[in-house]
Amino acid sequence: MGILGSSKPDGPAEELAAAANGDSVTSKRLTTTSGSMLGLDHLSKQPLIDLLHDGEQPHYYFYIPNKGLTKGSENVGGGMSSDYRTICLITDERILLITNGNQGEALNYGAVEDTETNKGLSKQRLSIFTNEAEYIVYIAGKTDYDEVLAASEYVLEKAAEAGNSSVDTTVISGLQQVWDPTDESISTDEALDVNPQGGYVTKERFKKIRDILDSDEKVHYITRGSTVDVEGSGAGNSLWGDDRSRKSGTKGWVRAAITDRRVAIKVPQILGSDERSIPYSNITSVDLDTGLVNKRLTLQTAGQTYHIEAHEPGKDEVRDAVRFIRQKISEANQPQVIQNTESSEPDPLDQLKKLKELHDEGILSDDEFEEKKATLLEKV
């Protein structure tokens, strides 16, 4: 046995640590299951080195306590009740995502489309985007941010080298599945296969609002700004007026998705998100105010008015979005025409049958029968 909890000698772990691109990979982290006396444990049964394939080289190791792993809007392993840290181990073959001590999936490089990093006061973040989802890895704030940036670039390099993969993740041998396989995420390609559509709409921007949309919803336009003001129907009092409140994104931009059925607004907060859904059937008017820098969409409903700030996209595309909203309002408020599928005209074939019965009974002469039959046959 090597260091506490390891089933492999210390020598291979030291060699792997020495060959790693980042200083975050150490022999101790590869070969221990237990944390320090005050820290959280790594894994419940085996150390990380036992999860590696033969010849697999780890390059970056990141962890955080109590935050878990996030795929789309689903978080696993977060909360103070967990006794284990969440781990991300980036190797030359795959990205190992591990939480709760015994749950782990490997993200395939062939599925990766983009990455994004963020540095905060108490934690950092590495977001990995695939065609189907955004995977968020939270990282302890004391981690060297330069190494997080280097890891992000490394993931993109490996993704460029890998062939395309139709599968995002595979369960790590010896561990349990992280995310429920029955969870149906929204297909990016299907959601963006629509016309008209603004040039500002991209896969990466769509993924930032995908969690507030329905599975079959189509996205025509996206806006990005800092605030949305809600006015009327008990919105509350604020510095911006009575019965008017301002919602600001404390954890990112305020985004509005203009879809085939509504305007959906996402205001990311430190604890969750403030979401607003405005169906076109509820909107009575839409206006656009353009300034030197910012634009503002104003949606009027019977109860409330929404003032949506839009830094992006440009004025021309926002005008297109306004025209699209007006068109959808008109369609949503058109009176429904109920067509009566039952014809008031009698069936000619039924009439022919009755006509023959009358002729057979001698009620109609041959000439009368032939004349009326000819008339009915013209209707068949």
Query: What is the CATH topology assignment of the largest domain?
Result: PH-domain like
Main β-sheet description: 5 strands, antiparallel
Number of strands: 19
| Broad CATH class of the largest domain | Mainly Beta
Order of helices and strands: HHEEEEEEEEEHEHHEEEEEEEEEHHH
Q: Strand percentage, roughly?
A: 25-35%
Overall pLDDT metric: 84
Helices and strands: which structural class? Answer: alpha+beta
End-to-end separation in angstroms reads: 92 Å
Number of domains: 3
Helix percent band: 10-25%
Task: Walk me through this protein's architecture.
Residues 52-147, 213-326 form the YokE-like PH domain. It comes from Haloferax prahovense (strain DSM 18310 / JCM 13924 / TL6). Residues 1-28 are annotated as: Disordered. This protein is α+β, with helices and mostly antiparallel strands. The protein folds into three domains: 10-171, Pleckstrin-homology domain (PH domain)/Phosphotyrosine-binding domain (PTB) (PH-domain like, Roll); 212-332, PH-domain like, CATH 2.30.29.30; 348-377, no CATH class. Helix content is 22%, strand content 31%. It is built from eight helices and 19 strands. It has helices at residues 10-19, 27-31, 145-161, 188-192, 203-207, 315-332, 348-360, 366-377, and strands spanning 58-65, 67-71, 74-78, 85-91, 95-99, 103-107, 112-119, 123-130, 134-140, 169-171, 219-225, 227-231, 244-248, 254-259, 262-268, 273-279, 283-290, 295-301, 305-310. It has a five-stranded antiparallel sheet with strand order 1-4-5-6-10. The protein has a five-stranded antiparallel sheet with strand order 3-2-9-8-7, with helices on one face. A hairpin with a 4-residue loop joins strand 15 and strand 16 (273-279). Residues 1-9 have low confidence and may be disordered.
